[in-house]
Protein backbone atom coordinates (compact mmCIF):
# COMPACT_ATOMS: atom_id res chain seq x y z
CA UNK A 1 0.00 0.00 0.00
CA UNK A 2 1.43 3.35 -1.04
CA UNK A 3 0.80 7.07 -1.20
CA UNK A 4 -1.99 6.80 -3.76
CA UNK A 5 -3.93 4.38 -1.53
CA UNK A 6 -3.87 6.61 1.54
CA UNK A 7 -3.85 10.13 0.08
CA UNK A 8 -7.54 10.72 0.78
CA UNK A 9 -7.22 9.35 4.31
CA UNK A 10 -4.29 11.66 5.07
CA UNK A 11 -6.11 14.66 3.68
CA UNK A 12 -9.24 13.86 5.70
CA UNK A 13 -7.19 13.39 8.86
CA UNK A 14 -4.85 16.36 8.57
CA UNK A 15 -5.95 18.50 5.64
CA UNK A 16 -2.52 18.16 4.06
CA UNK A 17 -0.85 16.33 1.21
CA UNK A 18 0.69 12.92 1.81
CA UNK A 19 4.38 12.71 0.93
CA UNK A 20 5.37 9.19 1.98
CA UNK A 21 3.99 5.92 3.36
CA UNK A 22 6.04 3.26 5.14
CA UNK A 23 4.66 -0.05 6.37
CA UNK A 24 5.83 -0.70 9.94
CA UNK A 25 7.01 -4.04 11.28
CA UNK A 26 4.37 -6.29 12.84
CA UNK A 27 0.69 -6.68 12.25
CA UNK A 28 -0.55 -10.03 10.99
CA UNK A 29 -4.23 -9.05 10.72
CA UNK A 30 -3.95 -5.39 9.78
CA UNK A 31 -1.54 -3.07 8.03
CA UNK A 32 0.25 -0.47 10.15
CA UNK A 33 1.62 2.49 8.18
CA UNK A 34 3.48 5.66 9.07
CA UNK A 35 2.11 8.60 7.07
CA UNK A 36 4.51 11.48 6.39
CA UNK A 37 2.83 14.72 5.35
CA UNK A 38 4.16 17.51 3.17
CA UNK A 39 5.14 19.54 6.26
CA UNK A 40 7.12 16.65 7.75
CA UNK A 41 4.63 15.74 10.47
CA UNK A 42 3.58 12.10 10.78
CA UNK A 43 0.68 9.91 11.81
CA UNK A 44 -0.05 6.20 12.07
CA UNK A 45 -2.73 4.50 9.98
CA UNK A 46 -4.23 1.12 10.89
CA UNK A 47 -5.76 -0.53 7.84
CA UNK A 48 -8.18 -3.46 8.11
CA UNK A 49 -8.57 -4.95 4.64
CA UNK A 50 -8.41 -8.55 3.49
CA UNK A 51 -5.22 -7.80 1.59
CA UNK A 52 -3.58 -6.84 4.91
CA UNK A 53 -4.56 -10.04 6.75
CA UNK A 54 -1.96 -12.82 6.57
CA UNK A 55 -4.09 -15.41 8.39
CA UNK A 56 -5.59 -18.24 6.32
CA UNK A 57 -9.36 -18.66 6.43
CA UNK A 58 -10.32 -20.45 9.63
CA UNK A 59 -13.43 -21.38 11.58
CA UNK A 60 -14.42 -18.23 13.48
CA UNK A 61 -13.77 -18.05 17.21
CA UNK A 62 -15.85 -15.29 18.84
CA UNK A 63 -13.41 -14.74 21.70
CA UNK A 64 -9.96 -15.28 20.19
CA UNK A 65 -10.12 -15.77 16.43
CA UNK A 66 -11.66 -12.44 15.45
CA UNK A 67 -9.43 -10.10 17.45
CA UNK A 68 -9.15 -7.60 14.64
CA UNK A 69 -11.17 -4.81 13.12
CA UNK A 70 -12.02 -1.15 13.45
CA UNK A 71 -14.95 -1.63 15.83
CA UNK A 72 -12.96 -3.84 18.21
CA UNK A 73 -10.18 -1.25 18.20
CA UNK A 74 -12.57 1.55 19.10
CA UNK A 75 -14.26 -0.45 21.86
CA UNK A 76 -10.90 -1.43 23.31
CA UNK A 77 -9.61 2.15 23.04
CA UNK A 78 -12.53 3.39 25.11
CA UNK A 79 -12.30 0.61 27.69
CA UNK A 80 -8.56 1.02 28.25
CA UNK A 81 -8.80 4.82 28.38
CA UNK A 82 -11.57 4.63 30.98
CA UNK A 83 -9.42 2.23 33.02
CA UNK A 84 -6.57 4.75 33.07
CA UNK A 85 -4.18 3.11 30.60
CA UNK A 86 -2.48 5.23 27.96
CA UNK A 87 -3.39 4.55 24.31
CA UNK A 88 -2.64 6.61 21.18
CA UNK A 89 -4.99 9.53 20.56
CA UNK A 90 -7.51 9.05 17.74
CA UNK A 91 -7.15 11.42 14.77
CA UNK A 92 -9.56 9.92 12.21
CA UNK A 93 -12.01 7.02 12.09
CA UNK A 94 -12.98 5.77 8.64
CA UNK A 95 -14.81 2.65 7.46
CA UNK A 96 -11.74 0.39 7.47
CA UNK A 97 -8.94 2.76 8.52
CA UNK A 98 -8.12 4.51 11.77
CA UNK A 99 -5.45 7.19 12.05
CA UNK A 100 -3.83 7.81 15.43
CA UNK A 101 -1.10 10.13 16.65
CA UNK A 102 2.46 9.08 15.95
CA UNK A 103 4.05 9.00 19.39
CA UNK A 104 7.50 8.12 18.09
CA UNK A 105 9.54 6.59 20.86
CA UNK A 106 10.71 3.00 21.06
CA UNK A 107 9.06 -0.31 21.71
CA UNK A 108 9.51 -1.42 25.29
CA UNK A 109 11.11 -4.68 24.13
CA UNK A 110 14.22 -2.68 23.16
CA UNK A 111 14.39 -0.91 26.51
CA UNK A 112 13.58 -3.59 29.05
CA UNK A 113 16.96 -3.60 30.76
CA UNK A 114 16.92 0.16 31.34
CA UNK A 115 13.26 1.02 31.95
CA UNK A 116 12.50 0.37 35.62
CA UNK A 117 10.29 3.47 35.93
CA UNK A 118 8.37 2.64 32.76
CA UNK A 119 7.84 -0.92 33.98
CA UNK A 120 6.62 0.42 37.33
CA UNK A 121 4.05 2.51 35.50
CA UNK A 122 3.09 -0.37 33.20
CA UNK A 123 2.35 -2.71 36.11
CA UNK A 124 0.37 0.05 37.83
CA UNK A 125 -1.66 0.63 34.68
CA UNK A 126 -2.27 -3.08 34.25
CA UNK A 127 -3.39 -3.43 37.85
CA UNK A 128 -5.97 -0.69 37.24
CA UNK A 129 -7.09 -2.33 33.98
CA UNK A 130 -7.43 -5.75 35.61
CA UNK A 131 -9.51 -4.26 38.40
CA UNK A 132 -12.23 -3.24 35.94
CA UNK A 133 -14.67 -6.08 36.53
CA UNK A 134 -17.67 -7.62 34.79
CA UNK A 135 -19.99 -10.46 35.86
CA UNK A 136 -19.76 -11.78 32.27
CA UNK A 137 -16.75 -12.38 30.06
CA UNK A 138 -16.16 -11.40 26.44
CA UNK A 139 -15.57 -8.27 24.41
CA UNK A 140 -16.73 -5.11 26.21
CA UNK A 141 -19.32 -4.53 23.48
CA UNK A 142 -20.37 -8.20 23.17
CA UNK A 143 -20.33 -9.90 26.56
CA UNK A 144 -21.20 -13.58 26.62
CA UNK A 145 -24.63 -14.65 27.96
CA UNK A 146 -25.03 -15.31 31.68
CA UNK A 147 -25.37 -19.05 31.00
CA UNK A 148 -22.27 -19.26 28.77
CA UNK A 149 -19.75 -21.97 29.69
CA UNK A 150 -17.25 -20.86 32.36
CA UNK A 151 -13.95 -19.48 31.10
CA UNK A 152 -11.92 -22.56 32.16
CA UNK A 153 -14.28 -24.76 30.11
CA UNK A 154 -13.78 -22.51 27.09
CA UNK A 155 -10.01 -22.63 27.54
CA UNK A 156 -10.02 -26.42 27.94
CA UNK A 157 -12.02 -27.06 24.77
CA UNK A 158 -9.89 -24.63 22.81
CA UNK A 159 -6.70 -26.24 24.12
CA UNK A 160 -7.92 -29.73 23.22
CA UNK A 161 -8.55 -28.51 19.68
CA UNK A 162 -5.08 -27.02 19.53
CA UNK A 163 -3.64 -30.28 20.83
CA UNK A 164 -5.34 -32.19 18.02
CA UNK A 165 -4.02 -29.73 15.44
CA UNK A 166 -0.50 -29.85 16.89
CA UNK A 167 -0.49 -33.66 16.84
CA UNK A 168 -1.18 -33.60 13.11
CA UNK A 169 1.89 -31.45 12.46
CA UNK A 170 4.40 -31.99 15.28
CA UNK A 171 5.48 -35.62 15.85
CA UNK A 172 7.03 -34.78 19.22
CA UNK A 173 3.67 -33.56 20.49
CA UNK A 174 1.80 -36.45 18.87
CA UNK A 175 4.01 -38.86 20.83
CA UNK A 176 2.87 -37.19 24.07
CA UNK A 177 -0.75 -36.68 23.11
CA UNK A 178 -2.39 -38.82 25.82
CA UNK A 179 -0.23 -37.36 28.57
CA UNK A 180 -0.88 -33.78 27.48
CA UNK A 181 -4.63 -34.35 27.26
CA UNK A 182 -4.58 -35.87 30.74
CA UNK A 183 -2.65 -32.85 32.00
CA UNK A 184 -5.20 -30.46 30.54
CA UNK A 185 -8.16 -32.31 32.01
CA UNK A 186 -6.57 -32.77 35.42
CA UNK A 187 -5.58 -29.13 35.68
CA UNK A 188 -9.06 -28.08 34.62
CA UNK A 189 -10.70 -30.31 37.25
CA UNK A 190 -9.02 -28.39 40.10
CA UNK A 191 -10.48 -24.98 39.19
CA UNK A 192 -13.21 -23.47 41.38
CA UNK A 193 -16.03 -21.34 39.93
CA UNK A 194 -15.66 -17.58 39.63
CA UNK A 195 -18.28 -14.84 39.37
CA UNK A 196 -16.28 -11.86 38.05
CA UNK A 197 -13.81 -11.24 35.26
CA UNK A 198 -11.18 -8.55 34.81
CA UNK A 199 -10.42 -6.43 31.76
CA UNK A 200 -7.31 -7.70 29.93
CA UNK A 201 -5.30 -6.59 26.90
CA UNK A 202 -5.18 -10.15 25.60
CA UNK A 203 -1.76 -10.18 23.92
CA UNK A 204 0.45 -7.87 25.91
CA UNK A 205 4.12 -8.37 25.20
CA UNK A 206 6.82 -5.68 25.29
CA UNK A 207 6.42 -5.39 21.51
CA UNK A 208 2.88 -4.10 22.12
CA UNK A 209 4.01 -1.28 24.42
CA UNK A 210 5.46 1.98 23.14
CA UNK A 211 7.50 4.19 25.44
CA UNK A 212 6.65 7.85 24.82
CA UNK A 213 7.47 10.68 27.19
CA UNK A 214 8.54 8.15 29.78
CA UNK A 215 5.13 6.51 29.84
CA UNK A 216 4.02 3.10 28.51
CA UNK A 217 1.43 3.30 25.72
CA UNK A 218 -0.56 0.19 24.84
CA UNK A 219 -0.99 -0.69 21.16
CA UNK A 220 -2.45 -3.65 19.19
CA UNK A 221 -5.42 -3.47 21.49
CA UNK A 222 -8.16 -5.25 19.54
CA UNK A 223 -7.94 -8.35 21.76
CA UNK A 224 -9.18 -6.48 24.84
CA UNK A 225 -11.88 -8.39 26.72
CA UNK A 226 -13.20 -9.31 30.14
CA UNK A 227 -11.66 -12.66 31.05
CA UNK A 228 -9.73 -14.43 33.78
CA UNK A 229 -6.79 -12.15 34.55
CA UNK A 230 -4.64 -15.27 34.99
CA UNK A 231 -4.81 -15.65 31.19
CA UNK A 232 -3.09 -12.28 30.83
CA UNK A 233 -0.54 -13.05 33.52
CA UNK A 234 0.53 -16.29 31.85
CA UNK A 235 1.20 -14.34 28.64
CA UNK A 236 3.05 -11.64 30.59
CA UNK A 237 5.25 -14.33 32.16
CA UNK A 238 6.10 -15.66 28.73
CA UNK A 239 6.81 -12.35 27.06
CA UNK A 240 8.45 -10.35 29.85
CA UNK A 241 10.56 -13.16 31.32
CA UNK A 242 12.68 -11.89 34.21
CA UNK A 243 11.01 -8.47 33.99
CA UNK A 244 7.59 -9.93 34.81
CA UNK A 245 6.29 -9.00 38.25
CA UNK A 246 3.93 -11.50 39.92
CA UNK A 247 0.93 -10.14 41.82
CA UNK A 248 -0.95 -11.47 44.80
CA UNK A 249 -4.38 -13.04 44.52
CA UNK A 250 -3.98 -15.03 41.30
CA UNK A 251 -5.50 -18.52 41.21
CA UNK A 252 -2.69 -21.13 40.96
CA UNK A 253 -5.04 -23.69 39.40
CA UNK A 254 -6.01 -21.32 36.61
CA UNK A 255 -2.39 -20.36 36.01
CA UNK A 256 -1.50 -24.05 35.77
CA UNK A 257 -4.12 -24.80 33.11
CA UNK A 258 -3.63 -21.60 31.17
CA UNK A 259 0.12 -22.06 30.85
CA UNK A 260 -0.25 -25.35 29.02
CA UNK A 261 -3.17 -24.02 26.99
CA UNK A 262 -1.15 -21.02 25.83
CA UNK A 263 1.89 -23.11 24.95
CA UNK A 264 -0.29 -25.23 22.65
CA UNK A 265 -1.92 -22.11 21.20
CA UNK A 266 1.51 -20.65 20.46
CA UNK A 267 2.39 -23.74 18.48
CA UNK A 268 -0.88 -24.12 16.58
CA UNK A 269 -1.37 -20.44 15.73
CA UNK A 270 2.07 -19.67 14.29
CA UNK A 271 2.06 -22.94 12.30
CA UNK A 272 -1.25 -21.92 10.75
CA UNK A 273 0.08 -18.43 10.04
CA UNK A 274 3.06 -20.01 8.26
CA UNK A 275 0.64 -21.75 5.90
CA UNK A 276 0.15 -18.35 4.30
CA UNK A 277 2.62 -15.73 3.09
CA UNK A 278 3.43 -14.08 6.40
CA UNK A 279 6.83 -12.44 5.79
CA UNK A 280 8.56 -12.78 9.18
CA UNK A 281 8.85 -16.54 9.02
CA UNK A 282 11.96 -17.14 11.10
CA UNK A 283 10.40 -15.36 14.08
CA UNK A 284 7.27 -17.50 13.80
CA UNK A 285 9.29 -20.71 13.59
CA UNK A 286 11.21 -19.66 16.70
CA UNK A 287 7.95 -19.10 18.58
CA UNK A 288 6.76 -22.56 17.50
CA UNK A 289 9.94 -24.27 18.65
CA UNK A 290 10.08 -22.55 22.02
CA UNK A 291 6.49 -23.47 22.79
CA UNK A 292 6.85 -27.07 21.65
CA UNK A 293 9.56 -27.38 24.26
CA UNK A 294 7.47 -25.64 26.92
CA UNK A 295 4.46 -27.88 26.25
CA UNK A 296 6.53 -31.05 26.38
CA UNK A 297 7.99 -30.04 29.75
CA UNK A 298 4.54 -29.74 31.32
TrEMBL record:
Residue stretches spanning the membrane: none
Where's the Aminoglycoside phosphotransferase domain?
25-226
The protein's matches in Pfam families, at most eight in alphabetical order, are given as: APH
For this protein, the record's InterPro entries field holds: Aminoglycoside_PTrfase, Kinase-like_dom_sf
Gene3D superfamilies reported for this sequence = 3.90.1200.10
Q: What protein am I looking at?
A: Phosphotransferase
Give the species.
Answer: Lentzea indica
Amino acid sequence: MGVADLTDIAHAAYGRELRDVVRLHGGSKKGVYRLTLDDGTTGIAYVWRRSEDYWPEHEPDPLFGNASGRDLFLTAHTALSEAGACVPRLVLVDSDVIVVEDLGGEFLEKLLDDSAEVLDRLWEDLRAVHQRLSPRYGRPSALQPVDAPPVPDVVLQRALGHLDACCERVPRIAAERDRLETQLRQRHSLIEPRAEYGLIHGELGPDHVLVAGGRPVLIDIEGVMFFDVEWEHVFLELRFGPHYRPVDGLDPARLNLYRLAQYLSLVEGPLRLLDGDFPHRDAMREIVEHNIERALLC
